[in-house]
Amino acid sequence: MRYAIEVDHVTRVFGGKGDKVHAKALDDISLQVDEGELFGLLGPNGAGKTTLIKILATLLLPSEGSVRVLGHDVVKEYNKIRARINMVSGGEISGYGLLTVRENLWMFSQFYGIPPKVARQRMDDLLERFGLLDKADAKVRTISTGQKQKMNVIRGFVTDPDLIYLDEPTLGLDVNASLAIRSFLRKWVKDTPGKTMLLTTHYMVEADELCDRVAIIDQGRILACDSPSNLKRMLKRATTFDIETTAFPGLDSMPSMDGLQGYNSKSVGDRALTRFVVNDEAVISEIISHISSKGGRIIALGKSEATLEDVFIHLVGRGLE
Amino acid sequence: MDWLLNLRAVKGRAYPRAVGGLREPSWMFFDTLLPLLGIAAFVFYYQALGAPEVYTGYVIIGGAMTAYWLNVLWSMATQFYWEKETGNLELYMMAPMSKMSVLAGMALGGMILTSVRAVSTIVLGVIIFQVEMDISSPGLLAAVFITTLIALYGLGMLFSSLYMLWGRGAWHMSNLMQEPIYLVSGFYFPVREIGFYFALGAAIIPITLGLDAMRQLLFGNETQGLLPVTTELALLLVSAVAFIVAAHFALKKMEYLGRKEGRLTMRWQ
Predict the structure, then answer these.
(1) Given CB atoms, is B172 within the 8 Å cutoff of chain A?
(2) What pTM value is reported for the model?
(3) Domain for residue A213, yes or no?
(4) Does A256 map to a domain?
(5) Which 64-93 residues of chain B touch chain A by CB within 8 A?
(6) Is residue A82 over pLDDT 50?
């Protein structure tokens, strides 16, 4: 098996003036992505996902370590990589508002030297698959955010890359637009063997649903890397409980308790939904007592199957949101 | 070098500027009629002073060339700053074509767009102010005009490369250069009037020599030229080559620095 991506002990530091170090965005990370794989990078904002993508996309140099993409070194052989990759970011505002959707897509295809006839065929095919054909001749500044993001995804695929980076491609989109994009991505990997996709997301469901393997990244370090099912198997000794309560003070600051691995709370109106990952179910009574002592009232309690979010809570000790 | 790829890239980048820029009809008002008011002010000023009639022609040619100078300053030099803000720069940088193709496309699109505006200004100016021109050497005039544009946009390509990492500094630099160049390049008067050596120094901006040569060719002996037209053409050719070569190396260096320092994208991108 050949690797599409090989990252070997990479560190990336964003420095200030002089030698004063400001931030270590990546801290000695290593990973390999096989050709033909749909690989996910899962982590909260600021985890280092986008920094890694910029390095892989030849837009940023690593401070230490080496990176090979499609067999070529990103520092010295970046010109050999660029013709075979593309990238789409969530919330992208690239392109020109005065041009139509079709003109923008054509323009970007020309930077890859795609013959106009081939570009036109691919554009029509992709516009149809994304349900955007009726907007093909509309000026970009007149279309909706979801339609713009679909256009950006088409821009990434119109060059028929061997490796594509998708950095939070469904960020801020409504359910229908997200579903359309996810469904296309799944089909693309299935229908085009040998093509590789690296997807960064902080949507657990997206990573669980799409990826062959997922690396969980936090504070510039890779905490775990495996298939979603294997990652969830890590929690075989752990159990997940969802407890719905009335909102109470101190919701986000549970004291440490033996048997409690981590938790993640979300407030919904005057209620709170908290997911607890425990490795000893006996701790639940202690948790309930704590909630009651703080004035919270239990509305519902349920035990659930492990998800990638639980894996994240287990590894990091907190949720993504 | 993949010439076909790079030619397609030039065409791709020229398109939004050449076509998109003329898509809004408001350009006729903002870029042709409004500048004509500024030209008219100088014309009336010269007429009130009793200056020779040829000065009206100088002003109209200078006014038309102003459009190119403004286009180079604001749509070439600072362009990569805006492209970075909108996320286009990273897409250009990670694409396989030579980055000079992007600059060449911007320049070509800018020349086409601005020429439509400049020609409109000249036609209106000539009709309104009844200017007489003597186009006895059309070949030489065309050579001077085209070489001036290539040298001027070559300078714009160099600025664009240098400004790539400067962010808002580029904006201030362009602001700083806009008005003084009107003076030292002699946009509204024969440049020799500011002194021979001073004008020669100002020849680093290609429009100085270009304007002077075109005025000599259009208005004949009445013009006080800075240098003979053929000398000015030769100097323009040298500057065109020098600026384009310098832009190539500057762009390469800036791309490397951008990758090293993480400045090809905005912080939030």
Answers:
(1) no
(2) 0.85
(3) yes
(4) yes
(5) 86-88, 90-93
(6) yes
